[in-house]
Amino acid sequence: MDERYQRLTLFEFADFSKLREKSALVVGVGGLGATVAEILVRVGIGRLVIMDYDTLEMANMNRMIYKPNQIGKFKVEALSEYLLEINEQIDIVAHPFNITSGDGYKAFMDEVGKSDVIFGCVDTFGVRLFMNAKCVEQKRTFIDGGASLDGIRGSVQVVIPGKTACYRCHRHTLGLGKEKSEKTVSVKEDPMLYLELEEPGKDRQTGICHLTSLPTTMTIIAALQCQEGFKYLLEFGDVANYLMYNGIRGVIERYDWERDPKCPVCGEAKDKLDDEKLRKIEEAAKMFDEMTK
Ligand SMILES: [Zn+2]
Description:
Elements: E1 23-27, H1 31-42, E2 47-51, H2 75-86, E3 91-95, H3 102-114, E4 117-120, H4 125-137, E5 141-147, E6 153-159, H5 191-198, H6 215-234, E7 242-246, E8 251-255, H7 275-291
Parallel strand pairs: 1-2, 1-4, 2-3, 4-5
Antiparallel strand pairs: 5-6, 6-7, 7-8
Helix pairs in contact: 1-6, 4-7
Bound molecules: zinc ion (ZN).
Zinc ion (ZN) binds at residues 165-166, 168-169, 260, 263, 265-266.
């Protein structure tokens, strides 16, 4: 046995060696995604795919893992180097692509189909909606994580297609064509909506991002994404549909939403998403990206 996994074998709720047969895709490798990727490598995931088109800047140094001497490199390239230093046995695939268009889209769709779980670690609401739709379409489990604009709150949502509420279910406050119901999540209750819709994080003139980012909050959210991911992959515990972390109050709250039968992404009326529906989702995604630019 590889000595590096010795302490994991003592874990009584699951057999971590089964992770060697699993494949994970991490989209976005900033503060959240780089930490998710490191955790997956430390516990011995079989195959890890990382996707991000961004390059490193000095402003990224408040997050974990990256170093100033890597500035200018693609984040996926800098992260691959780091992860292979930790464990050269892991099969790591790095794609420096935007997943919503061109070659990046093709690579993303291909990798989703090959992955047991997809971790969403991006900072735009539109891309979250996009990933949710594509993971539901391919019936792959999607674990989204995000931190709020103020840097001290965040949330994790686990989408198991056909079983749990998807990322689009009940987010009727988006105004994407459904009426509010008593189950609608209010903007104030939902850190992701609050940050994207109420307080756009980028200066509209300059496009400069001024989102607060605390390494503490990012690491907590990344760890929660992985913890739920392990429970799903190794079939132990009770996978949470939605976890909300509030660092001001020092609490993590759990919500399990019912699926919305009228959800435009996972609604029962169409187990197979048609192209028209997907186009609408993508248009909505673009609209929200514009709002946060
Ligand atoms: Zn849904």
